[in-house]
Specification:
Elements lengths: L3 E4 L8 E5 L8 E4 L3 E2 L5 E10 L8 E10 L7 E10 L4 E9 L6 E7 L5 E7 L7 E4 H4 L9 E9 L5 E7 L8 E4 L7 E2 L7 E2 L9
Parallel strand pairs: 1-12
Antiparallel strand pairs: 2-8, 3-5, 4-5, 5-6, 6-7, 8-9, 9-10, 10-11, 12-13, 12-16, 13-14, 14-15
């Protein structure tokens, strides 16, 4: 049995957005997170737009995810259409833009969808010259936590080697670790060793504008 993995309820409202998958007809149904600031004035916004998939047999609801990054140099915005999903109407869509890495070269976040086949995906943007890595968190945590464990996950940083660090919280014991390492390979999430160094995500003292 897979553990139930939820996004933290305490996520900062300036970093997330949510909606139900819908088709408004003439206008596009959409949501976006407010901008998150990175080093030297770079900013990023996570967006989703939804509409009917126009399938002859199903007419399901399609959700398209886009990351918009304005470089620190003040150049033209980089728009990356990195994921599309198809499923039933009314399913919940939650976007969490965790932020930039300390060096500004990566943007990290989590996407979660409800419905009949719920998903939770971590995305890792490495710049316009590299594809966005998508990591299935349900697969990463399969059989890692005991059955019935209900935990929350949030991206808190990276390691010096580039692995992504997630922090989990739960109402009851869900194993020996609350901090986990994940990467894009096929392995399961690994407990972070106590005292291991973490490169926290970039935090703008002035906040996003």
């Amino acid at each position: 049995m897979l553990p139930l993995i939820l996004l933290a309820a305490s996520l900062l409202p300036s970093q997330q957005a949510s909606m139900e998958c819908a088709d408004t007809g003439a206008s596009i149904a959409a949501a976006e997170t407010p901008a998150v600031r990175g080093p030297a004035g770079a900013t990023a916004v996570l967006k989703v737009s939804t509409a009917d998939d126009h399938s002859k047999d199903s007419h399901d609801c399609n959700a398209d995810y886009k990351l918009v990054v304005i470089p620190a140099t003040g150049g033209a915005p980089v728009e990356v259409d990195f994921l599309a999903s198809d499923g039933e109407y009314g399913r919940s869509l939650l976007l969490r833009l965790a932020g930039f890495s300390q060096d500004g070269k990566r943007v990290l976040g989590i996407l979660a969808e409800g419905g009949k086949s719920p998903t939770m995906l971590l995305f890792d943007y490495h710049g316009s010259d590299a594809p966005v890595e998508i990591i299935d968190l349900k697969m990463k945590f399969s059989r890692v936590a005991p059955p019935g464990c209900i935990q929350t996950l949030d991206v808190i940083g990276t390691t010096a080697s580039g692995a992504i660090v997630l922090e989990s919280n739960s109402e009851k014991s869900c194993g020996s670790s609350r901090r986990w390492l994940v990467d894009a390979d096929g392995g399961k999430a690994q407990p972070l060793s106590p005292g291991a160094a973490i490169l926290s995500l970039y935090e703008s003292k002035g906040g996003a504008q």
